[in-house]
Specification:
Length: about 140
């Protein structure tokens, strides 16, 4: 069964978009199999975004995810093609390129405040579920 990691980032939580995002995945027919509200540690955020560690925005991104002004909602969703479809439901990383009807396309305009995260491959999904949920056995 295919699973992906979807997160509502602090800006999405702060803006009250959690129920909308969960609802979109539920109504599509996907199954929620893991859910937690947390302020991630620096170590968790650094590892989650390890591929971006050389980017100029890396430190700001990690600070934003971990500063505790709002928590993150981490979720595991299960169902057919949920990795690819989940990314399509989120919309393009840069909200200025995200189509209407997508989460980012409907609710934001700034790449630094793009509301949500979704695993981009089966390998990322496995890594991220393990990282955020401490092993697939938990979910
Ligand atoms: P995500 O992993 O969040 O779903 P992605 O895999 O599509 O996004 P990445 O290029 O891995 O895109 O970027 C990860 C996150 O880093 C983005 O979602 C965004 O929050 C942040 N980010 C990317 N580019 C920039 C930028 N130029 N300025 C600020 N933040 C950025």
């Amino acid at each position: 069964k295919e699973r992906t990691f979807i997160a509502v980032k602090p800006d999405g939580v702060q803006r009250g978009l959690v129920s909308d995002i969960i609802g979109r995945f539920e109504r599509r027919g996907y199954k929620l199999v893991g859910l937690k509200l947390l302020v991630p540690s620096k170590a968790l955020a650094n590892e989650h975004y390890a591929d971006l560690s050389s980017k100029p925005f890396f430190k700001g991104l990690v600070d934003y995810m971990t500063n505790g002004k709002a928590p993150v909602v981490g979720m595991v969703w299960e169902g057919p093609s949920v990795i690819k479809q989940g990314r399509m439901m989120l919309g393009a990383t840069d909200p200025r390129a995200a189509g209407p009807g997508t989460i980012r396309g409907d609710y934001c305009l700034s790449i630094g405040r793009n509301i949500c995260h979704g695993s981009d491959s089966a390998e990322s999904a496995e890594k991220e579920i393990n990282l955020w949920f401490g092993g697939k056995g938990e979910v």
